[in-house]
Amino acid sequence: MAAPDKSIHIIGGGLAGSEAAWQAAKAGASVTLHEMRPVLGTEAHQTDQLAELVCSNSFRSDDHLNNAVGLLHEEMRRAQSLIMACADANRVPAGGALAVDRTGFSGAVQTAIEANPSITIQRGEVTELPVPGAALTIVATGPLTSSALAAQIQKRTGEDALAFFDAIAPIVHRDSIDFDKAWFQSRYDKSAPGGDGKDYINCPLDADQYADFVEALIAADQVAFHDWEASTPYFEGCLPIEVMAGRGPQTLAFGPMKPVGLTNPHAPDQKPKAVVQLRQDNALATLYNLVGFQTKMRHGEQVRVLRMIPGLEAAEFARLGGLHRNTFINGPKFLGPRLHLKSDPRLLFAGQITGCEGYVESAAVGLLAGRFAASDVFGRHLAPPPPITALGALLGHITGGGDASNYQPMNVNFGLFPPIAPPEDPETPKKPKVNKKLRGEMRKVAIAERALQALAEWLPEEPGGA
Description:
This protein is an alpha+beta fold and 466 residues long. Helix content is 29%, strand content 16%. Helix 2 (68-78) packs parallel to helix 10.
């Protein structure tokens, strides 16, 4: 009798699936990575590359001592993350944030995966769960899971998947921007190491221009919902710009268009009412995306309305914005502490389909799923990372920390971490409380330092080291 198949099959070649494949192969497993593109495309992807970036080229803050996503970056680097290695190798200026050249990044991920002898890429749609013949299957199909596979997931969970809309921001050619009105500057002149504090392009609006712009946003013709999309909620962290504008005339001025930390060199004595920022989108610095300007406006309306922004009157767009449906399961209800489906231990879930939000978070959950799957295949037990780490805090929210009755997508944040407790008096022991002496940046630094120490203790648990 043939020995049972100990291979791992991973469905989805996005950031989570690619990271899961890399981690599982690094641990000695034989991996088949399934990607349906180009056999079956999606509404948002433009290529058949693995780990294609769709919504933004930003991995957000890279400050590992003061920002939770920056801490997650650092933890993933220490866990030998492929996604972070490729992001670092394809970094473009973005102040204190980590932004990448889209093409270079996805190309680097695909090259690494293709060169790994333990990973086989198989193109085509998967419609069965688990993959026949596989010891374990990781579902990392992301926000655009195919309808056939979504039906399989619904069948396994016994409940319809939740869904929301995720919107894409427009991209502008730099040489079409009027720098007699626009200027380069990061907020408060903050920059990445070696930077000059001028990583963003800024376009100012005075009070009248801002009022006209908000009015035009609200009145713009939008793409109509399909019947099956009408009741799907937006994710609050990625709202279309016109939806934000409709919440009140000052919403944008206190949100993505806030003018704080910026001085217009063309009119240094005049404080703008609002500022539109554009972030570098490729290594050549020829393309810039409008920060926070994901939109559901029709393409013709986008061109008309966005050219009302001072400095963008003659803007040429490399890509206009769009909107797509994003599907995820109720992680706290259906997933165990190591990302296995509670009703079927042969199935693990990773990435945005678990209800995490963001490129970095998706890749982080993929990292964990790949390690968990490999440990299962070889009969090892890899405990979840401690909840005081960024990896553990995110995992804990997905697999039980979130409210199953009203589960919504979540970015990593310090609110997911157990608080730093004050020292107890041994003579009067009591329930630990939040250490009120640690506030602001001191509290964040303490949480980060505690996390990295705990991560160092967790990583060697995996045989062979991290």
